[in-house]
Amino acid sequence: MNKQELEKIKIKAQEEHIPIIMDDTLEVISKYLKDIKPKRILEIGTAVGYSAICFSEYLDKNGVIDTIERDEIRVKEARENLKKVAVEGKINIYEGDAVEILPKLNYEYDVVFIDAAKGKYPFFLEQSLRLIKPSGIIFADNILYKGYVMSDYNKHKQRTAVRNLREYIKEIQENEKLETQILEVGDGLAISKIKE
Ligand code: SAH
Ligand code: MG
Questions:
Q1: Domains (range + CATH), the chain
Q2: CA pair distance 172, 169, nearest whole angstrom
């Protein structure tokens, strides 16, 4: 892993206002990944590959990440970035809409990281529950969405996103197979562990 290149990728993404994972969120997830040593991670929302590159450091020997991105330009940049830090062998990028790609996947994952269209979180959860291993962990980023989710703010133009994020939270809290925590790191991080 070329750390200097990784830092450049991070700075460029920030300058271009690409919503890459925040440092405190990354720190929390990294702690889990260190313990799990995942064989396979699923990421929904690659952007330019920053989070996937960071996670790849904690993979088990021969472990892989499958990551999905629908924006053609970002996919291209992500592929270049993987080469720059020399992790292209560990990360598979699926180009297209996760809503179409997820139902076609049939691997088992130790970890899922949901970080794409907020209006689709309930669907992403349904698919993640289908694909996650027993004792696996599903992380969902931006779950508190700048505080809108926990306020009574309903008239925002992003109300569909807010409604779907609230539905996601309700489902993870009510699902008896999950042990869930919601942390106020970054833009809000939901951590749902599958009970064994
Ligand atoms: N995980 C990245 C940031 C992802 S930003 C990181 O931390 O480095 C969210 C990305 O999800 C955007 O690039 C957006 O194009 C993509 N996205 C949003 N909805 C999607 C969908 N339905 N299918 C695939 N990609 C999606
Ligand atoms: Mg995010």
A1: 3-142 (3.40.50.150)
A2: 5
- What single letter denotes the amino acid at residue 56? S
Say if strands 132-141 and 189-194 run parallel, antiparallel, or are unpaired: antiparallel
CA distances from 80 to 59, 75, 145 (A): 21, 9, 30
Ligand 1 nearest-atom number relative to CA 21? 7
Ligand positioned closest to the Cα atom of 17 = 1
- d(C-alpha 147, C-alpha 42), whole Å: 26
pLDDT of the chain, 196 residues: tens digit per residue: 789 999 999 999 999 999 999 999 999 999 999 999 999 999 999 999 999 999 999 999 999 999 999 999 999 999 999 999 999 999 999 999 999 999 999 999 999 999 999 999 999 999 999 999 999 999 999 999 887 888 876 666 678 899 999 999 999 999 999 999 999 999 999 999 999 7
Distance 9 CA to ligand 1 centre (A): 16
10 lines ligand 1 (CB under 6 A): no
User: Ligand 1 mean position to 68 CA, how many Å?
Assistant: 7
Which atom number of ligand 1 is nearest to the Cα of residue 97? 23
Q: What is the value of pTM for the model shown?
A: 0.96
Closest residue to atom 15 of ligand 1, CA basis:
71
